């Protein structure tokens, strides 16, 4: 069978940062944030050329091991074949290894770009297949679901197949992130989790995760209770003690704060009007970044 044909024009893809877990929704809940990586992908006659500016420019490989390239390659395989050459220009703003979904953003950018530069790509690789492939590359669906769909997502595995639904978070919620300078890889943070947990803790998280869906979409006044977690944050404290201390301190002051994803970033879900107070409560040594909620998820944009 003949391989696919590719567009001569470059495509630009923008992918949002994401915060997974949100307290009790381990590997299930995700929130898309208004902080973006941008990549321009062009099919070329030969070779692989990668330009990187911003986060990771000094550390990520500029070859076939680059996560974006691995994701492009995996998607091109599903689309029917590889282009002869590729040129990528990456503008990275999402910090790496901080719990803000940088790997999910790179993976989703790669597969969305591969689909966009392939003629007939949308017919060959539908949105459900995109989620499945992204989940396979990332290892769990929570960040990639929020990254692809935007908003607030609930994802799950159904017989090995990733599924997700998208909800709209209450627009009075203002995400405030506190990003430590030091990275903690997701691999390290997952390695700290026990193989089994007490039944009472699992039951508490199930109830809180269900409540969180209501709190984040309709009743933000319930967010403090709804973001309580017993399944991952304390187990991860040895790798991010200052972050867990900040979470506990903010919560004691009534702020719904959690470890974002696998950490070490702290995410506070402030009510609009209270974001400045949250920043002050964190105290010295913590820089607060107020972000918007992202509604649209991964997008193919016009070239600037
Ligand atoms: N834009 C990118 N280009 C290339 N590689 C990337 C990019 N973003 C992330 N990566 C790779 O992913 C790694 C970070 O992934 P990791 O899962 O540890 O953390 P995270 O995705 O930032 O946080 P979390 O999964 O907790 O939200 C980086 O060290 C790098 O190897
Ligand atoms: N649910 C994942 C998110 C980070 O990728 C974790 O906490 O390990």
UniProtKB/TrEMBL annotation:
InterPro entries assigned to the protein according to its UniProt record, in alphabetical order: GHMP_kinase_C_dom, GHMP_kinase_C_sf, GHMP_kinase_N_dom, GHMP_knse_ATP-bd_CS, Homoserine_kinase, Ribosomal_Su5_D2-typ_SF, Ribsml_uS5_D2-typ_fold_subgr
Keyword RNA-binding: no
Subcellular localization, as worded in the UniProt entry: Cytoplasm
Residues that, per the record, bind ATP: 95-105
Domain GHMP kinase N-terminal: from-to ranges: 69-151
Pfam families per UniProt: GHMP_kinases_C, GHMP_kinases_N
Broadest EC class assigned to this enzyme: transferase
GO cellular component, one term: cytoplasm
The protein's Enzyme Commission number: 2.7.1.39
Catalytic activity: L-homoserine + ATP = O-phospho-L-homoserine + ADP + H(+)
Keyword line: Amino-acid biosynthesis, ATP-binding, Cytoplasm, Kinase, Nucleotide-binding, Threonine biosynthesis, Transferase
Sequence ranges assigned to domain GHMP kinase C-terminal in this UniProt record: 223-280
Entry GO MF terms: ATP binding; homoserine kinase activity
Chief site of localization: cytoplasm
Biological process annotations from GO: threonine biosynthetic process
Pathways involved: Amino-acid biosynthesis; L-threonine biosynthesis; L-threonine from L-aspartate: step 4/5
Family: Belongs to the GHMP kinase family. Homoserine kinase subfamily.
Job description of the protein: Catalyzes the ATP-dependent phosphorylation of L-homoserine to L-homoserine phosphate.
NCBIfam families per the UniProt record, alphabetical: thrB (TIGR00191)
UniProt protein name: Homoserine kinase
Source organism (scientific name): Streptomyces buecherae
């Amino acid at each position: 069978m003949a391989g696919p044909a590719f567009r001569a024009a470059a495509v630009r893809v923008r992918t949002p940062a994401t915060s997974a877990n949100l307290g009790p929704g381990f590997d299930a809940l995700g929130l898309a944030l208004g902080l973006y990586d941008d990549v321009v992908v062009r099919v070329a006659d030969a070779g692989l050329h990668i330009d990187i500016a911003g986060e990771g420019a000094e550390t990520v490989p500029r070859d076939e091991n680059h996560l974006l390239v691995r994701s492009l390659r995996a998607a091109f395989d599903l689309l029917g074949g590889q282009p002869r050459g590729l040129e990528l220009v990456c503008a990275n703003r999402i910090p790496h290894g901080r719990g803000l979904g940088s790997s999910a953003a790179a993976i989703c950018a790669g597969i969305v770009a591969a689909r966009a530069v392939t003629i007939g790509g949308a017919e060959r690789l539908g949105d459900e297949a995109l989620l499945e492939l992204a989940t396979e590359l990332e290892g769990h669906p929570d960040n990639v679901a929020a990254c692809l769909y935007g908003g607030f997502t609930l994802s799950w595995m159904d017989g090995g197949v990733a599924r997700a639904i998208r909800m709209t978070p209450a627009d009075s919620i203002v995400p405030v992130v506190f990003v430590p300078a030091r990275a903690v890889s997701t691999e390290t943070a997952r390695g700290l989790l026990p193989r089994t947990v007490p039944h009472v803790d699992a039951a508490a998280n199930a109830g809180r995760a269900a409540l969180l869906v209501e709190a984040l979409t309709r009743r933000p006044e319930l967010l403090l209770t709804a973001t309580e977690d017993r399944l991952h944050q304390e187990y991860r404290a040895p790798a991010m003690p200052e972050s867990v201390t900040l979470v506990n301190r903010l919560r004691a002051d009534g702020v719904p704060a959690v470890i974002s994803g696998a950490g070490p970033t702290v995410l506070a879900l402030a009510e609009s009007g209270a974001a400045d107070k949250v920043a002050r409560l964190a105290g010295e040594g913590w820089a607060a970044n107020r972000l918007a909620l992202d509604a649209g998820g991964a997008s193919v944009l016009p070239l600037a």
